[in-house]
Structure formats: C-alpha cells, structure tokens
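Lab meeting, item 3. Inverse folding demo.
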C-alpha cells in the first residue's frame, strides 16, 4: 500500500517543493510589459515542465502612464484656465510684494527707531516662515476672528507678504552697497533727503538688486502652486483635477512642462543680468 494512492485509487501530486520543485521570484519585464508571476519548475507526473500560478496581466508602459499625449490634449482646456489664474496671481503678488518691499526697506533703514524695529521683525519673521504656513493662517485661521478672504485674495496676500520681506532685504543690501559719498554730495548740493533717496539712491540700488530680485520673483511664480491648498483653481489644481478625472497622471507632467517653458527663459534672463552686471562693474573698476 503506497502513500495513500492505493487507498484512494488516485495518484498523489507531489508537493510543490518536493522532488526538485523550486520557486523563482516574480519579475517585471519592461521590454515586454507582462507580469510573469511566480514560476515553479520541476518534475510533473508526465515529465519535465513549468506552470504559472498567476495569470499574466498587462502592465501599462511608462509612456502610456505619464506621457499620454491623448490625455494631455484632452486636459489642455483645464490647464489653460489654470494657467490664466496662475498668471494673474503671479503678476498681482509680484507687483504688491515689490512695492511693499521697497517701503519696508526704507522704514528699515531711515524710519524712527520704533518703526525700524517693526520692519526688522517683519522681515525676519516672514523670511523664516514657509509660504504654506502663512497661506493656511490667512485662509483658515483669520475667519475665526471675523476676517474672511477668498482663495485668490488669500494667496495674493501670502505671496506678497513673503516677497515683500525678501525684497526689503535685497534692496537694503543694494542701498548699503552705494558709497556714502552719494549722500554727502547730494547734501552739499542742498538736495532734500527724500529727493536724494528717490532720484539718486534707489535707482542705483535697484540696478544692483535686480538679479537677486528677479530670482525672488521666479521663486514666487513657482510658489503659486501652493494656492491649490486653498482650492484656488491655479495650474497645479487644474492639473490635479484633470488627473483625477482621467485616471492618468499625464496632466501633471503637462503642467510641469508649462512651468518649465515659462520659467526657464526667466532663469536664463537672471544669468544674463548677473553676467552683464559683473561686466559693467569690471569696466567701471578698470576705468
């Protein structure tokens, strides 16, 4: 009497790991995107062979998943609306933030001591805080004290505040780089201090501060994507909605491409300004 075979009259299949059976690991073949499953090889009743424990299932390719042109084309109307909102938010934030930064810088340098300390505190605090924290406080916390803003206004305020802090510090460095003789010459000519500041000092400081300030503006343009946290339909928010609607992340890749197309020339422009400023400084020094 065998191992149960004589009692039942049926042959007993060997255990998968008896008689030389062994399990090989599952693998993904990207050349042929088919999941082959776990393969057992060894001796079967009729001879040598192999069998699949799992059926083969198709795995989408990288191009179909992330660079699907059909999905990108269908998402273009949504991305276009988001791009318009992003452009409006960027222009408003840069205009308000730069203007406020100039005023804060002047208060930081020439205001009475009390205002000077306030300006220093403003600059230090908002240079240290992440923009996302500022945005969340404005949009979600201020309503508890009766102050409510819509998503666009909240994002504009948050981005403008942070840009103003960085602009003030950049402009302060530019003003400090101007020789004191400029002030003394203007004072000797009888030019009032406000006019000296407006006509003589600030134009020179802006020339020095333009490259780093342009970098700050580029950073603010990228940080507009944080407005999606407060449900503003900017470019990233529209791309995220399109991804959820079409069950494909290709709209996110398209949005990244739009950011790159718009901001990369600005990055090169900053490099050109820096090279031009260095060349100009070298020429003045040589003279």
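The presenter then showed the designed sequence:
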């Amino acid at each position: 009497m065998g191992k149960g075979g004589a009692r039942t009259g049926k042959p007993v299949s060997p255990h998968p790991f008896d008689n030389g059976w062994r399990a090989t690991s599952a693998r993904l073949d990207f050349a042929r995107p088919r999941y082959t499953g776990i393969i057992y090889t060894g001796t079967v009743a009729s001879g040598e062979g192999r069998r699949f424990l799992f059926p083969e299932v198709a795995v989408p390719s990288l191009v179909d998943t992330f660079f699907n042109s059909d999905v990108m084309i269908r998402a273009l109307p949504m991305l276009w609306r988001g791009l318009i909102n992003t452009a409006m938010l960027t222009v408003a934030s840069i205009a308000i933030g730069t203007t406020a930064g100039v005023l804060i810088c002047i208060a930081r340098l020439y205001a009475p001591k009390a205002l000077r300390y306030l300006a220093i505190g403003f600059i230090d605090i908002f240079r240290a805080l992440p923009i996302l924290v500022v945005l969340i406080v404005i949009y979600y916390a201020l309503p508890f004290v009766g102050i409510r803003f819509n998503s666009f206004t909240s994002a504009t305020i948050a981005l403008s505040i942070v840009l103003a802090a960085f602009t003030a510090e950049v402009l302060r460095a530019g003003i400090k780089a101007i020789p004191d003789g400029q002030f003394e010459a203007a004072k000797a000519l009888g030019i009032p201090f406000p006019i000296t500041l407006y006509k003589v000092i600030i134009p020179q400081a802006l020339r020095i501060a333009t490259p780093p300030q342009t970098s700050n503006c580029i950073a603010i343009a990228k940080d507009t994507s944080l407005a999606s946290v407060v449900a503003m339909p900017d470019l990233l928010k529209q791309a995220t909605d399109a991804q959820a609607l079409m069950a494909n992340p290709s709209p996110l890749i398209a949005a990244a491409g739009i950011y790159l197309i718009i901001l990369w020339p600005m990055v090169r422009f900053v490099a050109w300004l820096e090279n031009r400023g260095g060349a100009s400084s070298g020429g003045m020094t040589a003279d």
